Amino acid sequence: MSPSVPTMRLDRLLANLGYGSRKEVQSLIEGGRVILDGEVEDDPSQRLYIKADLTSRMSVSGEPLDPPPGLMVLMLHKPLGVTCSHKETGQLVYSLLPERWRRRDPVISTVGRLDKETSGLLLMTDDGGLLHRIISPKRHVPKRYHVWLDRPMNGDEAERLAAGTLMLEGEEKPLLPVEMETISTTEVRVVLHEGRYHQVRRMFAALGNHVTTLHRDRIGGLDLPADLPAGAFRSLSDAEIAAVLGGSA
Ligand code: URA
Questions:
Q1: pLDDT digits over 40-81, tens only?
Q2: Counting atoms of ligand 1 from 1, which one is nearest the CA of 216?
Q3: Domain range enclosing 89
């Protein structure tokens, strides 16, 4: 085994995944509820390599182990009306995940944010390094939004967005060029290469229009799957994580 793969005691692993306090998980383990590679593993001090395959090799009380700490990467189809925050009032995106996952260490965070009134593809992870690689301004991971507008466009919007000179109110640096595909006079797709606060809504305000509905359907080369309904989530495969960073599926 490569020396770079971390190891952890079984009781600490389960406690870090939120299955209970150290004492509670010790009694789960000693009670024979943990199966590893088809055999009961009843030694809380057993050290294990922390790798993604533990999910398929281990079960706890008859259910597959949750994704190991530091290795969880999810896509969520964010519905309207939920907030990307750990602490604000109202419904939070974390409430859409299993309750146990709120006790994980390291914690799960959203990769960037979507506004409360924006739906679509939201990544979540407990891997801080991956999170920073995706949101790093140096990497310019493109994000695509489907935008519905209040009023018909003038006709010069694509050109003004592509120019890289559009200024948002209260800012001093122009936006990076934005690609725009027209679907109808009041419906477009835009691809952003940076992530400023409320960027899409403020961008169309700067163009004299108003966004009525906003939905993110792609990050890098990863599309929101058509079969993932609003409010649902699933883990990303290694190929999907590579697609996010590489920009192509
Ligand atoms: N731009 C916005 O205005 N809102 C979002 O949620 C994302 C991008």
A1: 999 999 999 999 999 999 999 999 999 999 999 999 999 999
A2: 7
A3: 73-137+223-244
